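User: For my dataset I need records formatted as: sequence, then structure tokens, nothing else. Please produce one.
Assistant:
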Amino acid sequence: MSLSDAIEHAAAAHNEELKRHPHQTRVTRTTIRAATIILRRLQFEIQACSDFDALHTLFEKELGSVKGIGEMYIYDCAQRIGWALRRHPSRIYLHRGTRDGAKAVGIEVQGRNTIEVDELPEDLRVLTASELEDLLCIFKDELKIVRRGR
């Protein structure tokens, strides 16, 4: 997939079936159009990002003030475009779901945007940062139960 195609799919919040990803069902078409215009304009800057952190930082700066775009959209966009560029996160980016999951395993997240993989229990560190982001988000409720010992 070309970078141009990756930008189009990421901005549109498409999943593998080219349908709107459930994470972004509340993002309006107007917001998607605004993000698409911004990301198209940033194609050269995106290509120049040497790692995922730089990509995510660029998206926070350029998309963060767009009404209706939150930290989940920014992360998902950076992740989708990062896949095309082979730039993967080395730390776990926090948004509502991952914050809850990190808290559930006992990590202090107040005022933080990321956590390091080595802050998680040792058994989980075999996963990549992306996989850990998914795990913390998807299983946040189960992690709370496990921590309480139920």
